[in-house]
Amino acid sequence: MTARQRDENPAGIHLPLDPLPGHSSRGRLERVLRRGEFAVTTELNPPDSADPEDVYNRAKIFDGWVDAINAVDASGANCHMSSVGICALLTRMGYAPIMQIACRDKNRIAIQGDVLGGAAMGVANMLCLTGDGVQAGDQPGAKPVFDLDSMSLLETVRIMRDNGKFLSGRKLTTPPQVFLGAAVNPFAPPFDFRPIHLGKKIAAGAQFVQTQYCFDVPMFRTFMQKARDLGHTEKVFVLCGVGPLASAKTAKWIRSNVPGIHIPDAIIKRLEGAQDQKKEGKQLCIDIINEVKEIPGISGIHVMAYRQEEYVAEIVDESGVLKGRQPWKREIRRDDQMVADRLDHILHDEITETQVDMVKTAH
Amino acid sequence: MSETNPAVTQATLVKKAAPKSDYKPADVSPQRRVQRSFAVRLWSIRHSRLLEWFYSRFADMFLLLHPLWRGIGYGRVEAPIKFVEKRVKGFMFDCRMCGQCILSSTGMSCPMNCPKQLRNGPCGGVRANGNCEVEPDMPCVWVKAWEGSQNMVNSDKILAVQKPVDQSLRETSAWLRVTAQAAAAREAAAAPKTGAAA
To pair with A129 at 20 to 30 A between CA atoms, which of A148, A240, B88, B139? Predict the structure, then answer.
């Protein structure tokens, strides 16, 4: 039962993997992508609490179905547990988190510190984002920082990793070994600039990109065609963002309230026509996955199922993108299991054990 | 500026709602800024090619005047030049005086007018109509920048990855800085042995 899983450090699940040539990080996601396997990532809904169990429970439902988990940095400018905190908890448990860094809340001094701190905790993947404007969130009175933008943030982390220096030029004794990610949104204007913009992100240091929710496959196909023509897909792993829509009503709400998400009318019509809208939303997501996985240059999917996290496993399973592969799964170690069983026995079973009894049963 | 625009914009509503005495950190929190018309800014972007041509002549002229600036002292001309630069560029581009002008790389659309002050391209939140996510009635600075850059001769300058803003250069003259740098580079090229004088 305790056979070692493929991407796991034998000395402990929380430890970084052995460095491989050509790899810039010591994480699982980069290994999966560089092996050419179809990667699946997802997003953890950050809790509004100080209880680590909340994070563990939310991560547990993805067990064995995803290669990496995004730890969001106050997405939509709503306040939640910080991405650094979530990453600290997840790395302890051996998960492969993708630490999101948004430029909205921190200046370059704080960000560079967090990059070092994250890398020290074993975070192998970092996703550099601009971040939503503060007006989108629950605290619109906050001061928007935006000291860096996603591009200069990418470059900053790349300089820290490759040159071993802070932006100021001061030396690092141990540079962070991270796999750098960025976000792209092919579904917002200016459309003809977007593929070129992706090229800029690659130049700044992006090694993988996750896209915004894809509901318009033809539009995405055009984008990918252009990206391929520019030669970008050879330099970057593209993970297409997908997710289930709960109902036609939610879809309409998202369309008019969440910036940057494009949902065509046909999608809403299809949802409206369905008996069970939630089920149809899931099916729609699977259909989109099946279409995008065939697009050349796609290396994986990023499943964002906000408040429907329990469907991620089903979606990944039914779409069959893993082709029978099982991503790393957290397993309880034998000794931990023994302690847990023993505690359970002592606490819940109606027995009183004395040392004399224990010696007797041992013989 | 004052076009006949009867439609009540989001910005007007914000302006009406906020008490007049409220402290408005004009250069810190661009979201708070209230602007009624983008007509001049958009004109500049439409005529980016003309302005590009004009600016290159203008920069040459400034460089020719380098002995004059050096004679008076760059430190001393800074104040009057900044005064003019701020007003001229403020009128034409809604300049925010970041002090490190990249207008010729951004299609004559000032990136500091972006509420997120993005200098490397649009964010993912651009509305379907090409307007800003944060200020719904403002055309996205980067949608316009892309349009403007495509009119220009050096249309590929938009591809350069820009460094983060050096906040210590705010409220200083970019014209003089560019001139001083160009002069220093010219001198360094002319006489590689003798170090460039300031």
Answer: B139
3-state helix, strand, coil in chain A (%, to 5): 40, 15, 45
pLDDT tens digit sequence for A104-139: 999 999 999 999 999 999 999 999 999 998 888 888
In chain A, what residues touch B166 (CB-CB under 8 Å)? none
| Inter-chain touch B125–A151, beta carbons under 8 Å | no
ipTM, interface predicted TM-score of the complex: 0.87
Is the CB of A143 inside 8 Å of chain B's CB atoms? yes
Q: How many CB atoms lie within 10 A of CB B100?
A: 18
C-beta atoms of A190 and B126 within 8 A: yes
Q: Which of B115, B159, B163 has the CB atom closest to A152's CB atom?
A: B163
CB contact under 8 Å between B124 and A131, yes or no, is no
Q: Chain A interface, mutation test: which of B120, B127, B133, B165, most A Cβ atoms within 10 Å?
A: B120
Tokens 């179809």 — which residue?
A38
Task: Please state, in angstroms and rounded to a whole number, the distance separating the CA atoms of residues A230 and A208.
Answer: 16
pLDDT at B194 > cutoff 50: yes
Structural contact between residues A275 and A248, judged by C-beta atoms closer than 8 angstroms: no
B82 touches chain A (CB under 8 A): no
The closest of A200, A219, A259, A41 to B123, measured between CA atoms, is A259
Please tell me which of the candidates B122, B124, B165 has its beta carbon nearest to residue A190. B122
> Is A103 in Cβ contact with B116 (below 8 Å)?
yes
Report the pLDDT value the prediction gives residue B174, as an integer from 0 to 100: 95
Supply the DSSP string of B79-101, one letter for each residue.
HHHHHHHHHHHHHHH-----SS-
**Across residues B153-165, what is the average pLDDT?**
94
DSSP of A189-203, one letter per residue?
S-TTTHHHHHHHHHH
pLDDT per position as a tens digit, A5-30: 888 888 888 899 999 999 999 999 99
- pLDDT, tens digit, for every residue of A300-338? 999 999 999 999 999 999 999 999 999 999 887 788 888
Show residues of chain A in contact with B125, CB under 8 Å.
Answer: 132-133, 136, 185, 188, 259-260
Radius of gyration from C-alpha coordinates of chain A:
22
Q: Which helix (H) or strand (E) holds A270?
A: helix A265-272
Q: Give A258 or B10, the one with higher predicted confidence.
A: A258
| Residue A322 CB neighbours (<10 A) | 18
pLDDT at position A332, please?
A: 79
B-chain CB neighbours of A188 within 8 Å are 122, 124-128
The residues that bridge with A182 in the sheet, in sequence order, are A128, A209
* CA B78, chain centre distance (Å): 18
